[in-house]
Amino acid sequence: MDGYKRIPTAAGSLGEALALGRAFWQLTKPRVVALLVLTAWVGMMLATTGLPDFARMLVASLGIAMVSGAAAAFNHVLDHKIDARMARTRLRPLPSGRLSGAQALGFACALAAAGFVLLLVEVNALTAWLTLAGLFGYAVVYTVFLKRATPQNIVIGGVAGALPPVLGWTAMTGTVGAEAWLLMMIVFTWTPPHFWALAIHRVEDYRRAGLPMLPVTHGIEFTRTLVLLYTVLLLAVCLLPYLVGMSGPFYLAGSLALNLRFLHHAWRLKFAPRADTAIRTFRFSITHLMLLFLVLLADHYL
Ligand code: HEM
Ligand SMILES: CC(C)=CCC/C(C)=C/CC/C(C)=C/COP(=O)(O)OP(=O)(O)O
């Protein structure tokens, strides 16, 4: 009502502070970062014989999570106009006006700097610089250039998201082992079917936003074919840890079960799709990667 001013109360300002905290938290894409950290843990544990140094693991995970969260926050800042045009993203903190661009940018810079310094001082320089390269790969190479330029954006940009197992490995050993590159290849091959399944489901969003995602540029049918082919490739890549003697029969069985399930989703998406097949395939991709890395971990200690 005109003439009446809202009187700030303690409960009101606590509510506002919590909402602000929630908005900053959302900027970091916490569920994505949680899965990235799980893949880094597997890198850390597979690099170590016997029990790892838990204190080192904790600090390294925190540093990797902070820099990855900062990368996600930069992505929110750089993409706020695109995000405002898509139904899936229009309620994010920046397009909805819950945070200003300056607040989000300041948060991203502070988080990136703190995470980088933590890794540099408490872990090692190789891990700190490689993690920063991951941030640059995602926030600049993918978000600023590739995302707007080519339907291969997520294939090339996938390198950044696939880095954490390598970061975990270097955090514990100070060097990059061949096995770490193998783990990276798994996440790299997994990324296209993960993303394209979602892009098929959200094709109208991407068309409206003017982004050259594969289903927009090459059509849904072609994208379904590539999802299927990448899941076949993923099955083959996931055999490598067993074939090179890095993992045992428990991993082989778990990996085959998960990859055959993923293949089944992709097959259905190509040959017998229903309205929800693409989104179910996307959701399964997340379960797949999480369980696959847990199986790698369990196999290591069996
Ligand atoms: C360039 C590579 C990638 C692209 C383009 C991509 C794209 C996406 C998109 C668009 C979403 C939907 C987010 C939303 O609904 O707000 C998503 C969700 C997700 N992605 Fe990816 N992704 C990539 C790599 C990764 C990697 C490497 C991981 C983890 C290892 C990952 C884990 C997840 C998880 C856990 C979710 C669900 C998030 C939630 O429910 O809040 N993604 N991804
Ligand atoms: C090691 C390191 C620092 C890596 C950073 C990796 C990182 C945070 C990857 C996130 C991958 C992801 C969610 C991409 C989606 O971006 P999008 O812009 O296509 O999706 P959106 O529309 O949901 O924002």
TrEMBL record:
One of its GO terms (cellular component) is plasma membrane. It catalyses: heme b + (2E,6E)-farnesyl diphosphate + H2O = Fe(II)-heme o + diphosphate. It holds the Pfam family UbiA. It is an enzyme of class 2 (transferase). Gene3D superfamilies: UbiA prenyltransferase. The chain crosses the membrane at residues 32-51, 57-78, 99-120, 126-146, 153-174, 180-201, 222-244, 281-298. Its main location: membrane. Keywords: Cell inner membrane, Cell membrane, Heme biosynthesis, Membrane, Transferase, Transmembrane, Transmembrane helix. Its EC number is 2.5.1.141. One of its GO terms (molecular function) is protoheme IX farnesyltransferase activity. It is a multi-pass membrane protein. Pathway: Porphyrin-containing compound metabolism; heme O biosynthesis; heme O from protoheme: step 1/1. It is found in: Cell inner membrane; Cell membrane. InterPro entries: Protohaem_IX_farnesylTrfase, UbiA_prenyltransferase, UbiA_prenylTrfase_CS, UbiA_sf. GO terms for biological process: heme O biosynthetic process. NCBIfam families: cyoE_ctaB, PRK04375.1-2. Converts heme B (protoheme IX) to heme O by substitution of the vinyl group on carbon 2 of heme B porphyrin ring with a hydroxyethyl farnesyl side group. Carbon 2 of the heme B porphyrin ring is defined according to the Fischer nomenclature. Belongs to the UbiA prenyltransferase family. Protoheme IX farnesyltransferase subfamily. This is Protoheme IX farnesyltransferase. The gene is ctaB.
